[in-house]
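Practice problem: predict the structure.
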Amino acid sequence: MTVAPDAPILFFDSGVGGLSILAPARAALPNASIVYAADSAGFPYGTKSETEIAARVPTLLGRLVERYRPRLAVIACNTASTIALQHVRAALDIPVVGTVPAIKPAALLSKSRVFGVLGTDATVRQPYVDRLAAEHGADCIVLRHGSAALVQLAEAKLRGEALDPAIARDALAGLIDQPGGDRMDMVVLACTHFPLVEQELAAAAPHPMGFVHGGEGIARRILHLTQGQSWPEARSPGTAVFTRIDERQEALRPALATYGLNSIEAL
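Answer:
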């Protein structure tokens, strides 16, 4: 199938977290047309039921694919990926890349054999995480904690608001205060929002620890799936699409522009 050079890559998240996935992909494919879609009307996903997410995400992606005709879709959201990826792939006729917690690299990098999985409540309770931990971290203590407040912190940071350092401190404490947590040396940022506040998490850590997430791996996957396809000769402005636009989305304009997203549209 021939793909038009200006056919975009579609990134989808509940909010701005997927920008942590967009950034390495854009570095790898600087001239790619980009549509970044955020389900602001459904945000946040981490506190929603599996049933609701499994129904909502494929419907929205179907509408987005119909409107923007992307060459490929990236579900740049761990919660949506762990719950709805198979439903989306069944519904769409384009390649769909999901975001999975970076448990394998954390297990490879951990010297103490204790690492944490920091995500949303919905992600950390998924059987998928159990399987990854058993497969790649069988000799490790794998701690888990869900933080809805850290998702809100990332959104606030991109709106340029003052940040409460206690939020990052409390999120890490949810891991460290568990048995073995004092030996934790790696943390999987298992929500795409969390790399956006990695600086705040590192500052809140009581001892040095590494943070890993899946952005670079997804960029490599996009390169593989689009091998041989043609791209625009020059970089074009990207589009941010929201399912609801109010002052909170308007406040994101300066941050979105730094990711090459210069226009905002409503779905």
